[in-house]
């Protein structure tokens, strides 16, 4: 299982709404994540908008591709895009760039 960590930035004026949206992630979206190989997935948010994502997956590229094929993900990404700063692709799920792991205590 590969551990993946990524960073994004949420607009400071949208932090409260971003938190609220993630207290009620659509059940269909959660199921799609599970079905496409996203395990132990967490998001952490600082008060200045730094978003840290963590997940475990067998194949990150395949997990991303699986979500890209899901209509529920396209709807979610469309609704969430305006929450983020500096998205190159216009979508948070395609702007995720995994960080390089330099240490792990097992």
UniProtKB/TrEMBL annotation:
<dbReference type="InterPro" id="IPR011008">
    <property type="entry name" value="Dimeric_a/b-barrel"/>
</dbReference>
<dbReference type="InterPro" id="IPR008000">
    <property type="entry name" value="Rham/fucose_mutarotase"/>
</dbReference>
<dbReference type="GO" id="GO:0019301">
    <property type="term" value="P:rhamnose catabolic process"/>
</dbReference>
<dbReference type="GO" id="GO:0062192">
    <property type="term" value="F:L-rhamnose mutarotase activity"/>
</dbReference>
<dbReference type="Pfam" id="PF05336">
    <property type="entry name" value="rhaM"/>
</dbReference>
<protein>
    <submittedName>
        <fullName>L-rhamnose mutarotase</fullName>
        <ecNumber>5.1.3.32</ecNumber>
    </submittedName>
</protein>
<keyword id="KW-0413">Isomerase</keyword>
């Amino acid at each position: 299982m590969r551990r993946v960590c990524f960073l994004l930035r949420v607009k400071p004026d949208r932090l409260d709404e971003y938190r609220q949206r993630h207290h009620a992630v659509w059940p269909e979206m959660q199921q799609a994540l599970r079905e496409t190989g996203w395990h132990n997935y967490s998001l952490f948010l600082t008060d200045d908008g730094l978003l840290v994502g963590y997940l475990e997956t067998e194949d990150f590229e395949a997990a991303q591709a699986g979500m890209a094929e899901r209509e529920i993900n396209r709807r979610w990404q469309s609704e969430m895009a305006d929450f983020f700063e500096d998205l190159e692709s216009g979508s948070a799920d395609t702007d995720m760039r995994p960080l390089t792991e330099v240490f792990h205590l097992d």
